[in-house]
Amino acid sequence: MDITIFTKAVKARFDEMSKETLYRVDVDKQELWELYLKSFPEGTNPIYKTRTEHDCNCCKNFIRDVGNVVAIKDGKIQTIWDTEISTFYNDISKVMSDRVKQGKIVDVFTHFQKKVGAETSLQKLEKGVKSWNHLFCDVPSKYVNVSPDKMNEIRTTVQVFERGLKEITDEAVNVVIELIDQGSLYRGEEFRKGVAQFRDMKKKYVKLNDADKNVFLWENYDTLGARIKNTVIGTLMMDLSEDKDLDVAVKAFESKVAPSNYKRPVAIVTQGMIKQAMKTIEELGLEPALYRRFATPEDISVNNVLFADRSTSAVMKDGLESMLMSTVKDKGDYSKVEEIHIDDFIKNVLPNIQEMEVKLENRHVNNLMTLIAPKNADAPKILKWDNNFSWSYNGNVTDSIKERVKSAGGNVTGVLRISLSWFNGDDLDLHVVEPKKNHIHFRNKDNPSTTGRLDVDMNAGGPHSRNAVENITWLNKSKMEKGTYRVYVNNFTRREDRDLGFVVETEHNGIVSVYSYPIAVKNGADVPVINFKWDGEKMTDIEVGTHVSNTAASKEVWGIDTEKFHKVTILTISPNHWDGQTIGNKHYFFILNKCLNDAPPRGIYNEFLTGNLDKHRKVFEMIGEKTRCEVADKQLSGIGVSSTQRNSLLCKVKGNFNRTLIIKF
User: Where are the alpha helices (H) located in 186-269, listed in sequence order?
Assistant: First the structure.
């Protein structure tokens, strides 16, 4: 059978495919050659001298060089073997085509010369010359001697395209398009075509099987949308896909494309985000539980109260019989100040008192808290515990600085602890210069000779927390250097213009001190916090920086004065431990008379939500910010202390005696 019918058909296929982009698949070239020889039906490839008739170097080189070349048409792989011949060569073509189509595209096609194989060759015989026909093709110049750099660039583009399709979320793409369409993204219209193209390709990509996804990547790599991930708009979409705060992500984008004097004209809130949130709420039936307010004495059952002033208990739920107060019997002399653990206080003191006062010290300002109740008492459950009551500390956090340091993996049991806390996406850094000038900070975290170590460093990269902390602790008192320590805070990257300032907390020998800086920290600026001397046992000679507050002088916070005693109207534990529950950390709440939170607190925190809502945390983070409680004159606010926090309260109790106690936690 004349092989020229087959060779010309293969060449015609190559010529037709060459009008499009040609690729290679990962089918081994030697395997293809061996498969080709095996595919001849019996008797069609006879022995010629020492080898079979079709076992020639010319055809072998052709199959090794272009046998695994493919093109793409309508999302499907096309091969040079897709011929229609009415001879046994058609069966050979089908075997070769099927094998090549099983491969995965790994590169674009390139060759080192313009011809592959040869149409004919001549063999000189003893008598005359014999002509042989072979597989052959002409390679278009665009595929000849393509530079290695160009090949690497193409492969990298495909890899980046694939990562973008996998890592950029649909939500991030939709948010960016909506920001562009409503004019909320500076110069966003310049990128819309590429983002929209990427969105359309992503929709198609996710529906394909693995083999078709590979084809799709190579078919579309040379498009505007395919290269979007490594552009500035792609970085914005990646930031949003990684759960970065929308304000922070957009500001990072605009810092790259906007002039320094650019001011954002439109708030970063999209209708799509609102619709998505409302859809989630509707599907879960949670809307009634999202409306929050300040709790009042009427909301709380006396069964969940450790102490209540009699004037307050009269309006509480479930009557007076359940109160943990009884007739005062103890008439001892308690004129001396005594220390008592909170557990002993509850067990042995509370049942025998009628009135209680605690001193609100300046160091307790960040312990100020508010109890939050649902507006709808019958609202569905959204919290981890069996009631819909929550709480919010000053600064709209859910726990103490120390507990947040602990949760972030920091050591809180050292000889001396210095912790930094702040409430926005800025990258603040805590710095401490030891007496011998060793500088502990993010670039020099550990000093083995003194056991000083920075073990928590937040907001440097990745998702930015709005409840960020950093922590430096010394573990061995005997190794600590005596002398002057200098503590300051640097704003490595300023990202926001709200929730400004920071708090530094120190702790040694159970003594906790708080230093507040309430104003903005300029980008790159250092803020001196304190200088102090360490005498081997304790901090002395503390000097406080400018605008840093830690004075014993009284100041008004939440309507009451610090450094003064205030009447306790209710003492209760946190709602996650009401009715015998033991879910998470226990907090003790000393509700104070006339203590009024003057800022709208959050009523919803992701860490409070029941487990089945974890996947919706981005939505609920936004809802928590948007559904803050309205400020009210009637509320339950006071001092909160976590059971995991070493702290103390100076307390006066009255009955048939006067007793002054230091309650230890």
Answer: 192-205, 210-220, 232-241, 246-257
- Return the amino acid letter for 430: L
- Residues β-bridged to residue 473: 417, 453
Give CA torsion, residues 245, 248, 251, 253, to 10 deg. -60
Q: CA-to-CA distance for 121 and 144, rounded, in angstroms?
A: 24
Kindly report the backbone phi and psi dihedral angles of residue 137, in degrees, each rounded to the nearest multiple of 5, phi listed first: -165, 160
Nearest Cα residue to 228 out of 171, 170, 293, 162: 162
- CB neighbour burial string for 70-101, b if at least 16 within 10 angstroms, e if fewer: bbbeeeebbbbbbbebeeebeebbeebbebbb
Q: Cα–Cα distance between 139 and 12 in angstroms, integer?
A: 12
C-beta separation of 328 from 350 below 8 A: no
Domains of the chain: which residue ranges? 4-146, 154-269, 293-374+558-664, 401-550
Place of tokens 């009255």: 654
CA pseudo-torsion sign 240, 443, 546, 408: positive
Taking alpha carbons only, the member of 174, 158, 185, 164 closest to residue 228 is 164
Helix (H, G, I), strand (E, B) or coil at 375: coil
- pLDDT band at 332, cuts 50/70/90? very low
DSSP state of 476: -
Which residues, 6 or more positions from 571, have their beta carbon under 8 angstroms from its beta carbon? 305, 306, 307, 308, 350, 356, 588, 589, 590, 591
Per DSSP bridges, beta strands 648-654 and 368-374 are unpaired
* Tokens linked to 169: 């979320």
For the chain, what is the radius of gyration of the CA atoms? 37
DSSP assigned state of 301: B
C-alpha closest to that of 591 among 570, 612, 613, 622: 570
163 vs 467 pLDDT, higher one: 163
For the whole prediction, is pTM greater than 0.85? no
Q: Look at the alpha carbons of 315, 318, 324, 328 in this order and tell me if their dihedral is positive or negative.
A: positive
How far is the C-alpha of 441 from the C-alpha of 453, rounded, in Å? 9
Length of the chain: 665
**What is the sign, positive or negative, of the torsion defined by CA atoms of 359, 360, 363, 367?**
positive
Q: How far is Cα 574 from Cα 392, in angstroms, rounded to an integer?
A: 11
What would the pLDDT profile of 342-398 be if each residue is shown by its tens digit?
999 999 898 888 899 999 987 788 889 999 999 988 888 889 998 999 999 987 666
Are 597 and 559 a contacting pair, CB within 8 Å?
no
* The domain made up of 401-550 is a member of CATH 2.60.98: no
Instruction: Give 56-93 pLDDT, tens digit per residue.
Output: 889 999 999 999 999 999 889 999 999 988 888 899 99
Dihedral sign, Cα of residue 430, residue 431, residue 432, residue 438: positive
pLDDT at 626: 76
Residue from 435, 405, 438 nearest 420 by CA: 405
pLDDT (tens digit, 9 = 90+) per residue, 219-271? 999 999 999 998 999 999 999 999 887 878 888 898 888 776 555 555 466 66
End-to-end CA distance of the chain: 98
Q: In the prediction, which pLDDT does 331 show?
A: 40
Tokens 């039906």 — which residue? 41
Spatial distance between the Cα atoms of 495 and 481, rounded to a whole number of angstroms: 36
Residue 378 has a CB neighbour count (10 Å cut-off) of 8
3-state DSSP assignment of residue 120: strand
In the chain, what percentage of residues exceed pLDDT 90?
Answer: 51
**Hey, what are 106's tokens?**
């790994």
CB 225 within 8 A of CB 198: yes
Separation between Cα atoms, residue 496 and residue 494, nearest integer Å: 6
